[in-house]
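User: two proteins, same treatment. go.

Assistant:
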Amino acid sequence: MEKVTRLASERGVVIFTKSSCCLCYAVKILFQELGVNPTVHEIDKDTEGREMEKAIARLGCSAPIPVVYIGGKLVGSTNEVMSLHLSGSLIPLLKPYSATLS
């Protein structure tokens, strides 16, 4: 759990993904189109990936992957990110981490 917490707080926008996950890809593209360059950790390519996935579940994320952190705080998985985006609440969260959002 310590590794997940540390990685999540090292950068403004962090996404934990798996390389073959289509929802992970969709979330990464959404952030890039909003002018944010997230730090992406592909846990299936990490030797501690299984432990990281278990830690993410213990930290309170309902779906294991993708998992998004903004400003070191757990936002959630695809459903939470898309709900925030559709309600207009995602962009204000991302403003501090984007050169194009104003």
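Protein 2:
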Amino acid sequence: MAPLPGAELVQRPLQLYRYLLRCCQQLPTKGIQQHYKHAVRQSFRVHSDEDNPERIQQIIKRAIEDADWIMNKLRMVPVEEATSQLLPSSRS
């Protein structure tokens, strides 16, 4: 199950970027949203010079799977617990 409808339509990096930012809007707190928006932006900067179409498709598939995992994790746990599990700086 995809985190948001339309994951199956994502085929280009810009589509993935927009899709992941929309997923971030579904996260429960502003802190978690900001953390993952920053992570999405950083990842796009790191991979901006990628020109191999196969590798780009691998990255897209993995990013959607990761977003799915995060969204499913949040559905299963209370917000306070999700915050401590999903934000690295919140871990003890």
